[in-house]
């Protein structure tokens, strides 16, 4: 058993593994080494049991079908357990750390009975970083262990780099489904009771009851964003829900852009887009999370702490995201809750015309006449970043890349123009702080409701959101010169016409917006100064070869005073939630905006 002959002499790690084993009482302990052999063994075991179904049309690829009640992040069961409730702020669920530890200790007692406990040493970001960001996830889910193979740098190399004393984030995960002797396991064990708890003061994560994505792959949202944002607050950096891309112009000039968009709003598509305008090239560094730190040159640099993509499947195909398709085509990919074709391939809504027959995500026969979609709207592909054909070679550089522009974006049918440039850093922070979007299937709950989603981080800020805005302001002040800061832009690919059509074609055509962004960085792009910031004139946006009516273009770019008159009260009540804690410069931004809009 893994306790008598452990592959490490890290005393605090060993003590913690021992404690958890005593509490949860697993049948055996396995220290994950991250080897291809381990991947083969675990996937074979999962296939033999039936939790994974092979996808023969793609090499070394598998499909998991979850319990229908365990299909998305559970924001209402996500807790920030800071000592002081004020430190969790009004946007997080707070519970006292002692109370949460007591409650969850009760749930964890014996929760791994009949199961294997996997110890997964991992590192968020490059192992060559000055201070590698270690974590160890203890989990009783083999699905989680193999997913961590894809999403993180993990295994023996990490354990070796940790040595005997490195700090690491403790991540404890149990699906919460102990097995009695002789009891047959469920294909997707989980528990109706779910907790996704964070102890920011101790840099610890406790997750119980769910095996799904962001609830269970604890390096991702829980560590790299929630705990990461708290670390960033304390240490002077930013953990953000951002893609990172590298853009090369026809003249060969290179720019780096990050983009913050809520879940299921096209981050993966934008990160690896194929420009439709000649001569431009996009390469990918990350599609979901960016850590932003100042470099020695005084610029803000971004690095991706992840090692794979956990992308939303529906809507992804060769027309919308050819590079994601090429990435998964290479195999070694875990699919979750998608449909299976009769010839052993995967299928989901948005992949063109549907086959005549499928096995849907619940394992049932499906035909085009079936009432429900064949794939869950939040179904996913989990695939190694290294397989991406347009991966930028800097992806593994511990310094990351220097950022030229930050995009904030949401999914809004009205009000928000295609692109608006902020006047300065503080105005950019205001744009981020007031970002809003219609909810998607990426979290449980109602879809299509407009909510504020500051910096696309609403579900992921690990502390008081007002303090987080303040931290963004402080990061700007920390710049040696305002000129070195990235320019900030607010984009909306999702504005609709009165008859409900999308006004802007999106996907590869978004390269036209990136081109305008670059022209603005160069100080040449034309813009009109509107009350909300700088917007392109219809002529300044390159629409050559684009089949788009002039009136649609104007409507996509429009700043409509009536729509803004409806928007401002929503922003006011959003800001009011933070009381005195909201940085006063944000109130000043709002006041100035109201004045420019001629609003009382
Ligand atoms: C998830 O929900 O499991 C996840 C990884 O993130 P997102 O919702 O941002 O895609
Ligand atoms: Mn995300
Ligand atoms: Na989700």
Principal-axes geometry comes out as globular
Number of DSSP strands? 32
The secondary-structure class comes to alpha+beta
Our estimate of the beta-strand percent is 15-25%
Radius of gyration: 24 Å
The small molecules bound here are: phosphoenolpyruvate, manganese (II) ion, sodium ion
Distance between the termini: 70 Å
Portion of residues within helices? 25-40%
**Spans of 5+ residues with little confidence (pLDDT < 50)?**
none
- The mean pLDDT is 97
Question: Describe the biggest sheet?
Answer: 9 strands, mixed
Total helices: the number is: 15
Structure overview:
This protein is of the alpha+beta class. The chain has 15 helices and 32 strands. Strand 20 (339-341) and strand 21 form a beta hairpin. The mean pLDDT is 97.
Helices and strands in order, then pairings?
Elements: H1 11-24, E1 28-31, H2 36-49, E2 52-54, E3 62-64, E4 78-80, E5 93-94, H3 97-108, E6 116-124, E7 133-139, H4 142-151, E8 153-154, H5 156-162, E9 169-174, E10 195-199, E11 204-208, H6 213-216, H7 219-235, E12 238-240, E13 242-248, E14 254-260, H8 267-271, E15 281-286, E16 290-294, E17 300-303, E18 308-312, H9 322-329, E19 334-336, E20 339-341, E21 346-347, E22 358-359, E23 365-366, E24 380-384, E25 401-402, E26 405-409, E27 419-421, H10 425-433, E28 436-438, E29 450-452, H11 465-477, E30 487-491, H12 511-521, E31 527-530, E32 533-536, H13 550-557, H14 561-576, H15 584-596
The structure holds phosphoenolpyruvate (PEP), manganese (II) ion and sodium ion.
């Amino acid at each position: 058993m893994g306790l008598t002959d452990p592959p490490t002499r890290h005393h605090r790690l060993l003590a913690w593994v021992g404690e958890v084993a005593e509490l949860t009482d697993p049948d055996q302990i396995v220290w994950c080494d991250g080897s291809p052999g381990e991947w083969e063994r675990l996937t074979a075991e999962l296939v033999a049991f039936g939790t994974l179904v092979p996808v023969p049309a793609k090499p070394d690829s598998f499909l998991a079908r979850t319990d229908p009640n365990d299909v998305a992040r559970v924001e209402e069961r996500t807790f920030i357990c800071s000592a002081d409730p004020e430190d969790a702020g009004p946007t997080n669920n707070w519970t006292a750390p002692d109370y949460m530890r007591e409650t969850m200790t009760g749930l964890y007692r014996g929760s791994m009975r009949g199961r294997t406990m996997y110890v997964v040493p991992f590192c968020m970001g490059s192992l060559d970083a000055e201070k590698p960001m270690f974590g160890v996830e203890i989990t009783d889910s083999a699905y989680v262990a193999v997913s961590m193979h894809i999403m993180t740098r993990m295994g023996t190399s990490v354990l070796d780099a940790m040595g005997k004393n490195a700090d690491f984030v403790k991540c404890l995960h149990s699906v919460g489904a102990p097995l009695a002797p002789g009891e047959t396991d469920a294909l997707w064990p989980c528990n109706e009771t779910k907790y996704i708890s964070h102890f920011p003061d101790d840099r610890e994560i406790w997750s119980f009851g769910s095996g799904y994505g962001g609830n269970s792959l604890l390096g991702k949202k829980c560590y790299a964003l929630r705990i990461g944002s708290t670390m960033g607050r304390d240490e002077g950096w930013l953990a953000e829900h951002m893609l990172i891309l590298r853009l090369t112009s026809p003249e060969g000039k290179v720019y780096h852009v990050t983009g913050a968009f809520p879940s299921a709003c096209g981050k993966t598509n934008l990160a690896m887009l194929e420009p439709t305008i000649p001569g431009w090239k996009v390469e990918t560094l990350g599609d979901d999370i960016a850590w932003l730190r100042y470099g020695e040159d005084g610029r803000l640099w971004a690095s991706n702490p992840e090692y794979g993509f956990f992308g939303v499947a529906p809507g992804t195909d060769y027309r919308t995201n050819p590079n994601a398709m090429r990435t998964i085509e290479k195999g070694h990919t875990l699919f979750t809750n998608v449909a299976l074709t009769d010839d052993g391939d995967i299928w989901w809504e948005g992949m063109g015309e549907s086959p005549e027959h499928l096995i849907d995500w619940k394992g049932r026969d499906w035909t085009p006449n079936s009432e429900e979609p064949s794939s869950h709207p939040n179904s996913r592909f989990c695939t190694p970043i290294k397989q991406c054909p347009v991966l930028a070679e800097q992806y593994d550089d511990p310094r990351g890349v220097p950022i030229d522009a930050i995009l904030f974006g949401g999914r809004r049918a009205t009000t928000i123009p295609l692109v608006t440039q902020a006047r300065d850093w503080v105005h950019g922070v205001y744009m981020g702080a007031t970002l809003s979007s219609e909810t998607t299937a990426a979290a449980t709950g109602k879809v299509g409701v407009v909510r504020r989603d500051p910096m696309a981080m609403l579900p992921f800020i690990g502390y008081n959101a007002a303090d987080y805005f303040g931290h963004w302001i402080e990061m700007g002040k920390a710049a040696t010169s305002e000129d070195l800061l990235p320019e900030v832009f607010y984009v909306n690919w999702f504005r609709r016409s009165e008859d409900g059509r999308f006004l802007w074609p999106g996907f590869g055509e978004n390269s036209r917006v990136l081109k305008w962004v670059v022209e603005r960085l160069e100080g040449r792009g034309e813009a009109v100064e509107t009350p909300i910031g700088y917007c392109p004139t219809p002529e300044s946006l390159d629409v050559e070869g684009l089949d788009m009516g002039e009136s649609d273009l104007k409507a996509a770019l429009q700043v409509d005073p009536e729509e803004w008159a409806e928007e401002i009260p929503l922003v006011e009540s959003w800001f009011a939630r933070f009381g005195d804690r909201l940085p006063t410069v944000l109130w000043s931004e709002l006041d100035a905006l109201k004045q420019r809009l001629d609003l009382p």
